[in-house]
Amino acid sequence: MARILIIEDEPDLQTLLRFNLEKDGHQVVVAGNGGDGLHELRRSAFDLVLLDLMLPDRDGLEVCRIVRSDPTLATLPVIMVTAKGEESDVVVGLGLGADDYVTKPFRIKELLARVKVRLLRAREEAADGERRRMQFQGLVIDPVRHRVLIDDQPIQLTLTEFKLLHFLASHAGVAYDRYGLLDRIGDGDAVVTDRTIDVHVRNLRRKIEPYDRFVETVRGVGYRFSELAGDV
Ligand code: CA
Question: What is the pTM assigned to this prediction?
Fold first, then answer.
């Protein structure tokens, strides 16, 4: 059983979706527009969202973008519900991070099957994340969801900062020189100097305060993640 939010303005579809999802054992909340939907998402936790793209107040794509930019909602499965002829919206929506879509008129069985697949995958990812998650006092690194928590609060790192932190933390106690780190985090920047890594480290440390002390400067070498970080 899962908690599912339906963001949909057509009463007939609201009823049809609610009826069938509840019959499948899910708990369902319906929001009739994007604003109410976002409000519901911030008020309580959901396992999946069915998102209509044509909403009276705002574009479903905008709702999707807002959901994906919120670190607390970043891994929430989103299935878009689109009308025929909105293929370009589907492409944009998938690019924004929606997980799947169905096209109206859809067969309810197909929709329920897609819901099931997404819920299953989300559960697997959560379990995988739990297994691979690293914790150093109040600093938590979740490599599956690319998430970092500082004292239970999610923070925003760039992909490079995340890779840097994850790599160093995975090899605690080992010192790496700047070029070695650049190689391993594969920045891909066209112009890279050994000072590039200093900038990334500086930004990373600022963001992970007060645990910035775990990222140590090794004079004459480069950087390392403190061997003692795991100990309280
Ligand atoms: Ca609609």
Answer: 0.68
